[in-house]
Amino acid sequence: MAGCWIVTGTVYGLMAASGATSGFDPVGTIFFGTVLFVILLTLLSRIVEGGRRSIDRLVTSLVLTAFIIALLPLVSLVWTVIANGLARFDVQFFSESMRNVIGAGGGALHAIIGTLLITLTTAIISVPIGILAAVYLVEYGGGALARAITFFVDVMTGIPSIVAGLFVYALFALIFGPAVRNGFMGAIALSVLMIPVVVRSCEEILRLVPNELREASYALGVPKWRTIVKIVLPTSIAGLVTGVMLAIARVIGETAPLLIVCGFTFSMNYDIFNERMMTLPVFVYTQYTQAAGVAAQASIDRAWTAALVLILIVMALNLIARLIAKIFAPKYGR
Predict the structure, then answer these.
(1) A Gene Ontology CC term for this entry (predicted)?
(2) Cβ-Cβ contacts under 8 Å for 302 (sequence gap 6 or more)
(3) Tens digits of per-residue pLDDT, 215-271?
C-alpha cells in the first residue's frame, strides 16, 4: 500500500509541477493509491493463491478501504487548515489583539482568552450536573422521574445551538435588559448544549461497570453512596473523562449562540461577567465575513490561523484528558 501511495503521489507531484493541477492533492493520493493497491492485491492473489483466497483478500481490502475513505475528510480538513493557517502562526498572533488594527497585523489573543474562560466556565457548570444526572439515572433511576429526565435529555441533545443562544439571551434580557452581553451568558448557553451530551455519554459508560463489582461491595456492608464513589466512578474514570472531552469538543466550536449572547469585541476582556467577550469561532466568522478591500487577504489569513489554533486547543484538551484518565484509572496489577 505504501508503494501504491508513492506511485500515485509521484503522479500527482508531476501533474502539479507541470501545472495540470493547482497543487499537490494528498487526499487524491491516498484514495487512488488505496484503490490501486486493492486491484493489484486481488489480481496477484488470484494468480498465486487461487480464487477463494483472492476473494478473502478482496473483502479485507474493501473494509480497509472503507476505513481510509472515512478518514479522508479529516485528512483533507487538517491539511487545508494547516496549509492556510501557517501564514499567520507567529508570535504577534498570540500576543496582540485586534484593537486599533486596520489591515495587516494584529492577533487573536483576546479571542483565545475568551474561548478558554468561557469553555472553563461551561465545564465547571456542566460536568458536575451531567455526571450526577448520569449517576442518578444508572444507580437510582427507574421511575417516572428517570424516564422524564431521559426524554428531555434526548430532546435537548438535538436542539439547534442558536435556540440555546436565543433562550439565554431572552432570559438575561428579562432580568438585566436587552443590552446585556457578557461571557457568562455564553457559558450558560454552551452549558445548555453540553449537559445533555455529558449525561448521555457518562450514562453509557457507567452502565458498562459490571454489577458484580457493586454486589461485592454491598456484600462487604459498604453503603451505596460509598460504592459509587469508591468503586463505580474510579472504575469508569477513563470513559467519563473521554465523554466529558467529547462534550467540550462539541461546544468549543459553537458560533451562533456566542455571537448572540457574547457579541464581539476587538479588545482584551478578562472579566467573564462584564462587557462583551470575543471567542475563536466568532473571531473566525467576523474575520472571514469582514474581509474586503486591500486588507481582505490579511483577514482571511487571520481566520485560517484562528481555526488552526482552535483545532490545536481541542487536540491539547484530548491529550490532557487521556493523561488524566491514565493516571487516575484503577490499577489491576496482581
Answers:
(1) plasma membrane
(2) 88, 93, 106, 107, 108, 283, 287
(3) 999 999 889 989 999 889 888 888 888 889 888 988 998 888 999 999 888 889 899
pTM of the model: 0.80
> Domains (ranges, CATH) in the chain?
2-87 (no CATH), 109-328 (1.10.3720.10)
Distance CA 245, CA 323 (A): 12
Q: How far apart are CA 169 and CA 66, in angstroms?
A: 44
pLDDT per residue over 30-51, tens digit each? 888 888 888 888 888 888 888 8
Question: 75, 30 in Cβ contact below 8 A?
Answer: yes
CB 80 within 8 A of CB 278: no
| Angle at 253 (CA atoms; ends 252, 256), nearest 5 degrees | 115
